[in-house]
Amino acid sequence: AKPLINVKNLKKYFNVGKGQVLKAVDNVTFEIGQGETVGLVGESGCGKTTVGRTLIKLYKPTQGEIFYKDRNINDLDKAEGKKYAKKAQMIFQDPYASLNPRMTVGDIIGEGIDIHEIYKGKDRQSRIYELLEKVGLNREHANRFPHEFSGGQRQRIGIARALAIEPEFIVCDEPISALDVSIQAQIVNLLMRLQRDMNLTYMFIAHDLSMIKHISDRIAVMYLGTIVELTSSHELYSNPVHPYTKALLSAIPIPDPKIEKGRNRILLEGDVPSPINPLPGCKFRKRCKYAMDVCEIKMPELKEVSKSHYSACHLISR
Ligand code: SF4
Asked: Which residues constitute the signal peptide according to the record (predicted)?
């Protein structure tokens, strides 16, 4: 598919005082095709949410570019910037914290419609009803407040709010992490249905590989601000090459206890190192059982190891 979003050498650094720099995103390059879902996976602190926020212009890159249909989103004039703000939306991890408790659901969904002046009066109201129905709620819900809903329903409200202004691209920032497992699948199915119906493009952020397989066409695995593996969802699960991806995959619980018992889990030892003043060489080396001398000196680059399958590891790309 033609790229809708093109991210080139993106860096986002934060000054954290005392001359220290936190390299949240450190040279990340990827693209998202029109109608595609790219999953972004990694432990907390790996920079995935920072990438998401930079894509919808909540953060400005320290370096690098983000193109939306060949236009650099940080070079847009005011009118174009407003258009982009309409086209690119975000769904948040905690549906409760992201919904104003003093506003009715109808007004929460209507807020974006008002800012962008898309529908007015009666049309505005019917648009809100239509959106509620689209996400599996009903029009009576418009006059109620967020606290009257369950976690899953609140996330449906968050999705309706994101859809209200007819976006093309949605950053889904761990939209299911705070929900019960039984509800997670419902929300993933809803997002997939909406994608088909409305021709949406997603970036789907998750902290593990358990649910992301079903929704993602391709998956990028992030570690300490960099992408360590990037390929199609099917290829990543059937033929992972990076030691970190393998560890993440082996951490997915399998519901069948017989299989679970016989499994060889790769345990990730130690915590994620700090992204402040990271070690030279491969950022994963302190936790990698294959680490070699070269891993201490040279940072591995993301290279194509087989068709459309990229990995950053000296083991495979020497
Ligand atoms: Fe492990 Fe070295 Fe590969 Fe890093 S580059 S993942 S330390 S083998």
From this structure: none
